[in-house]
């Protein structure tokens, strides 16, 4: 399973306006649900998991978050990508007492056949390139991000 199979144009949100992580996650969850990827329980499960296991990552180019839930809330695998107008605070994976000021969210929805470890490894490879994150932040269209995903991974 490659990222290009999971990130599609209909799952890319640019210029997202949100004042909190909950608002940002609601937008990505709603998109995933509207497109038939997740069940109605997805958003509440996401918030519960985020409270227990933070997903913010402080990176040199920009902070990101990689929220995800267990497969029972997912109909089919996909990754919603949100580029936020203004950063929102997520607690950090490596230090739950600290905040990451997140500008990009990769909201992962993997069904029972989704290989979570493999997908997370590929996503980490993808985002470890500062130029990639910069290109995502500057993207003018969903197509720009799709082309980037197709090239890099």
UniProtKB/TrEMBL annotation:
Q: Which domain of life is it from?
A: Bacteria
Which segments constitute the PTS EIIA type-2 domain?
5-152
State the Gene3D superfamilies in the record. Answer: Mannitol-specific EII, Chain A
Q: Which SUPFAM superfamilies match?
A: Phoshotransferase/anion transport protein
> What is the protein name given in its UniProt record?
PTS system IIA component, Gat family
Supply the source organism for this entry. Enterocloster lavalensis
Q: What is the lineage of its organism?
A: Bacteria, Bacillati, Bacillota, Clostridia, Lachnospirales
